[in-house]
Predict the structure.
Amino acid sequence: MSNWYLQNGKDSDVVISSRIRLSRNLEKYPFTSRCTEKDFQEILNEIKEIVPSLGYGLKYIELKDIDDITKVSLVEKHVISPDFAMKENVKGAILVNDEENICMMLNEEDHIKLQVFSSGQELENLMNLAIEIDEKLGELVTYSYSKQFGFLNVSPTNVGTGCRASVMVHLPALSLTGNINKVLQIVNHFGMNVRGLYGEGTQSGGDVYQISNNQCLGLTEAEIIKSLKTITEKVIEQERLARKYLTKNPLELEDRVYRSYGILKYAARLGADECKKLLSDVKLGTDLGIIKELDDNKISKLNLYTKPGNLQKYLGKELDGYNRDIKRAEVAKQILE
């Protein structure tokens, strides 16, 4: 079975993926901002020791043993954060399974960032899995926990449940109709964060945005999921209405998506940013049934294997920027054919 990021799930025409992230710290160690090198190593040792008892096919891999291209590829899959990937002097590690739908970052912002992923809109199922793993982990280690406040974490916004639920959404029609800012402002108004493709401080790429809850204290996990799901459904509705509006001028829309398809298929060189924009159009055209030559599987492969890190992983060699652009065009052509 293919990994979650090469699959399609519920409402995948708009919702690319879902993620649940739980922030946890171990009671007997200071927060990472005050940890010594000895503390970091002891945290890793303690977690490494319990991996066999935890199960789920998780493997322990230290950050120092992951090469730079693999780190970039994991960031592109959203399996690890950009900040974590760039850490050089901190002893960090991940626990990850073969499907990469479960990944824990150790010694990132907190001692443990437990993450579960899925394609499409699967917030409830993911939350059930995250809680199941969290409870099992909680039987093997002692969390830093307050009866008054809940789980204690480095960031005050993560105190409480320590739960961040998020969805990655593709909103090309709202961008094309000029309604994207209005919809994103409404999302913010309802207590949700809207961020770029790779989280806080990043730009959106290919009309893709990340929507997540911005409050953990005073809310249960179920309430967080319910709020995010309600907002996500409204965003899906608005994007689909915008797509319906675009189809009123079918010639213009067909011309746009097929021009992008043609460049993807026949270009000799493709830059990363250019490719994102082209893929946004092509995914829109495929989801609307305009481009009949493609299916969801090919779109997922194009989205993954044209990204810099995963392109190099796919080809099995390191490339400079110029040659990446040439190989990106070749790989796109291979997938399309």
The chain has a mean pLDDT of 92.
